[in-house]
Amino acid sequence: MSRDIQTLQKLLASSSEELKKVSNKPFHPNALDVVVLRYAPHFYNEEEKLQINNFKQGSSVESTSETNSVTGKSNVQEMLEEEEEEERIIPINKRPKKEISSPHLPAKFKNLNLFPEDDIKFVMHKRLFSSDVDPYKNRLSMPKNGIACDFLTKAEVTKLSERDGKNQLVGVEVTVLDPCLREFSVLLKKWDMDTTHTYNLSGHWKNIVSINKFEKDQELKIWTCRVNNRLYFLLVYR
């Protein structure tokens, strides 16, 4: 992820002629172009600017970027920096190994008798960032580099790429079980970025934060399971 930040910094420091040498492929705007256009519009001609602005208007990644205008950061920049910070905090040899299931899910979850034990999957250790507990952003980000297993069905993977009539991501309805076993219905969405992606729990996430009084730097363990083909996320205090 640090390479993405460095690449962006080099692009911002380069000339438009140098940028055009990067690729001879037809221009297809992405989230990185949205960021570069904001700080270095001279890199693009008028037609490319129009394409980028159309992409921005139709992309859920930038749907709340105006709320970040005080800090001057877009959601894309913010998540890139968060992933870079997480890579620094958790050394590779300390990160959770990939596994299909784990015996360490607390007994209170198992005692609900809702979840087939062989279907329980450990997803990730999650250190909460300020954006994860911000009610205005209303999302929990789960970066690809921190996820320990595949937890989606093929149908869900397809659904996460679908958009509605306004070109907004539709998402997949899931259930979150908080550390006190309270149920919340939320939306799981996938945000594609330049070289990676992140999953986000959105919708009613801010209610989960408020009720549980989650704070920045708090650590959670996140698990998944299925009940009647519905995806559940189980949150456990680490």
From TrEMBL:
InterPro entries per the UniProt record, alphabetical: At2g31720-like (IPR005508), DNA-bd_pseudobarrel_sf (IPR015300)
Keyword Manganese: no
Cellular-component GO terms for this entry: nucleus
Renumbered residue ranges of the record's region Disordered: 57-87
A molecular function GO annotation: DNA binding
Localisation per UniProt entry: Nucleus
Top-level taxon: Eukaryota
Biased composition (Low complexity): 59-71
Keywords: DNA-binding, Nucleus, Transcription, Transcription regulation
Annotated Gene3D superfamilies: DNA-binding pseudobarrel domain (2.40.330.10)
Pfam families hit by this protein: At2g31720-like
Listed name of the protein: B3 domain-containing protein
Organism of this sequence: Flemingia macrophylla
Species classification: Eukaryota, Viridiplantae, Streptophyta, Embryophyta, Tracheophyta
